[in-house]
Design goal:
Elements (H helix, E strand, L loop, with lengths): L8 H5 L5 E5 L5 E8 L2 E8 L7 E2 L10 E4 L5 E6 L8 E6 L8 E2 L8 E6 L6 E10 L2 E8 L5 E5 L6 E5 L5 E6 L5 E6 L6 E7 L11 E3 L5 E6 L7 E6 L5 E5 L5 E2 L13 E3 L5 E7 L3 E5 L2 H11 L5 E7 L5 E7 L7 E5 L5 E5 L13 E7 L5 E7 L9 E7 L13 H8 L3 E5 L9 H5 L8 H15 L3 E11 L1 H12 L6 E5 L5 H6 L10 H7 L6 H9 L13 E6 L8 H12 L5 E5 L9 H19 L5
């Protein structure tokens, strides 16, 4: 096969034609995201597609990415922040009045909302967590959608402690202890007594217990648990006794409790509209769904026949008969179908990127790389289409987190680089999630150590296999991946011909000191455990020794840095300090700052502009792969 034509950056990084579809609870309408004034907004259309879709939100500043149907067909809710600051507010849209402006229902400066969900007990009400009272603590509220009335139903006892709705008016308290334990307690409706239920060892859950969901009858909790297990499995905790029992597992795969690897999926657990558990997602090289309901098993069987991808985001009406489902795929992402389980009817609703030919996209191939100490590193290799896979320039693309994982899916930057003739390697180094807690915990104390060795071992593997040209390998990543790119430039400058860091950490101590107040209690089981506490002098010294900021004099690798000015996670100073010091000693460094972005770039003109610079940078330092 000949190499495909060069595909424009706009086609890769411009907004999709349509994406993020879901069906209304009454089954009469479908909502989706599509561009309006070059920003994604929410559109609504009749389920039969007989009427013209209409745009129901009007944000021309920043794309809407998260919307929610309500139980009243009149109202739709969406979340929006300001310039990437992640302080999301809840906005209400009146679907019966196209001329009405969206209303900010949580208009509290500096606060943020998360865990927005329909009330199990009250019609016309949603629950949410918000830190309007104290920026360091999240209180539980009920929000009456029609009136906008907010009622606090669970005041946080302090940072790292928050309430969540149970069943029948009960409330559940999740508490992070100073020692890193994770306590769960219950307060029954009408009682002031808070009864301890159980405690999880926080060291096994660097990002918290990935899933905690009340059972439909309110007597227990579904938990993504590693109790007495290396692999995460589905357990049930009895709310009266605290007893934990195994409900479901997979012999080799983890319950996808990180909730990040399968696109647009919030939880690995699938529930019907009555709250009964009907399915669970496991993820290895590909997804496996276990079903717990015979009718849903038939639904999954029929959906799987529609695509050779993995079932991604799925929604149904209240009857559970009408479904809208998107599929995860490495070369044809997000293809979305309507399916009626009563009639067996199915039809394709849209391809998000109709201008991209799947045959021109490069397959994302799972490979296993053995680290120098014997640890197996599940990885993905993407090779250019129509190009002999020998001696190619290669980009080592490092995921963020580091408590995250790369997975089989469409990644625009991967396809863009492959289209330009580069091989792309993604290594799930130690510290990545999804491969058992031993794989994750092998990263404790190994920042800029064995975690980086794993990346170097990936490069050596690709060279030994003949895929990569040893002298034309670059490293690139965002967030932790940006830190890894800086470590590559500062600690192993002879390995990489170029480095690209976006929103990456340069100073581990400063990074931890500048975390938002509400996030600090959650650092115990991840950053403090894996890296250290900057308040302890000897640990701070070790953190600085593992920080690129202390090794800038060793950088000889060409470097491109990009930063969002409003980043609340990795503050702008993390990039500014590197650039200022390198420029002070005469080093030529490319630096881009986007004033309307945060931790990652959302606005398409910024993404396109950034990747245009990446394209130029790699062409200059790795060579132009294709005319």
């Amino acid at each position: 096969m000949n190499a495909p034509e060069l595909i424009s950056l706009d086609d890769f990084f411009g907004p999709p034609a349509r994406t993020g579809a879901s069906i209304s609870p009454d089954g009469n309408r479908i909502a989706f995201l599509a561009p309006w004034k070059n920003r994604l907004n929410v559109w609504v259309q009749d389920v039969d597609g007989n009427d013209d879709a209409r745009c129901v939100t009007a944000d021309d500043v920043r794309s809407v990415l998260d919307y929610h149907w309500t139980d009243n067909p009149r109202w739709l809710l969406y979340l929006q922040d300001s310039g990437g600051d992640e302080n999301h507010h809840v906005f209400r849209v009146d679907l019966d009045d196209p001329d009405a402006d969206a209303v900010d229902l949580t208009p509290f400066p500096g606060s943020r909302v998360y865990a927005l969900e329909r009330s199990r007990e009250k019609e016309g009400v949603v629950t949410l967590l918000m830190n309007a009272r104290d920026l360091a603590a999240f209180d539980l509220y009920e929000l009456e959608i029609a009136t906008g009335e907010l009622t606090m139903i669970g005041e946080s006892p302090g940072p790292g402690q928050s309430w969540t709705p149970g069943v029948g008016g009960d409330l559940l308290l999740f508490e992070m202890t100073a020692q890193g334990g994770m306590n769960i307690a219950r307060r029954k409706k009408g009682s002031d007594v808070v009864q301890h239920v159980t405690t999880f060892d926080g060291a096994d859950y660097p990002m918290g217990v990935g899933v905690i969901h009340p059972t439909a009858d309110g007597t227990g909790l579904w938990v993504a648990s590693t109790t007495d297990s290396d692999l995460t499995r589905l357990n049930r905790v009895d709310l009266d006794t605290g007893e934990e029992t195994v409900v479901d597992s997979h012999p080799t795969l983890e319950l996808d409790a990180a909730r990040r690897a399968v696109e647009q999926v919030e939880s690995p657990l699938i529930f019907d509209k009555a709250g009964e558990l009907i399915g669970a997602r496991y993820l290895g090289e590909r997804q496996v769904i276990h079903t717990f309901d015979s009718e849903f098993a038939e639904v999954v069987k029929n959906l799987n026949a529609l695509s050779d991808g993995d079932i991604g985001a799925m929604s149904s009406d209240d009857s559970g008969r009408k479904w809208v489902v998107a599929f995860t795929h490495d070369r044809d992402p997000g293809v979305t179908y309507y399916y009626d389980h009563t009639t067996g009817e199915s039809r394709k609703l849209f391809r998000p990127y109709p201008h991209l030919n799947p045959d021109d996209m490069a397959p994302m191939t799972p490979v296993t790389i053995t680290a120098r100490d014997g640890l197996e590193l599940p990885s993905y290799l993407t090779l250019p289409v129509g190009v002999e896979p020998v001696g190619l320039p290669m980009i080592l693309l490092v995921h963020g987190g580091p408590w995250y994982r790369d997975a089989w899916r469409y990644v625009p930057i991967v396809q863009f680089l492959a289209n330009r003739g580069y091989a792309v390697l993604q290594v799930n180094f130690r510290g990545s999630t999804g491969y058992g807690k031993a794989h994750t915990q092998a990263a404790i104390g190994e920042f800029a150590g064995k975690m980086h060795d794993d990346l170097i071992d990936g490069v050596e593997w690709a060279v030994a296999q003949g895929y990569a040209d040893r002298d034309r390998v670059a490293i690139m990543g965002g967030s932790y991946g940006g830190y890894a790119a800086l470590v590559g430039a500062a600690f192993t400058p002879d390995v990489f011909a170029a480095s690209v860091d976006y929103v990456g950490i340069s100073d581990l101590a400063n990074f931890m000191r500048t975390q938002p107040a509400f996030a600090r209690s959650g650092l115990v089981n991840n950053w403090y455990l894996y890296v250290g506490d900057p308040a302890i002098p000897e640990q701070e010294a070790d953190m600085l020794a593992r920080s690129p900021i202390t090794r800038l004099d060793d950088i000889t690798t060409p470097l491109l840095i990009a930063q969002g000015a409003n980043d609340a996670r990795v503050v702008k100073a993390e990039s500014d300090n590197v650039v200022e010091r390198l420029r002070a000693r005469g080093v030529d460094i490319d630096y881009i700052v986007y004033d309307d972005e945060g931790h990652g770039f959302v606005n398409p003109e910024n993404s396109i502009g950034f990747y245009r610079e990446v394209e130029r940078f790699f062409a200059e330092h790795l060579g132009v792969c294709r005319p």
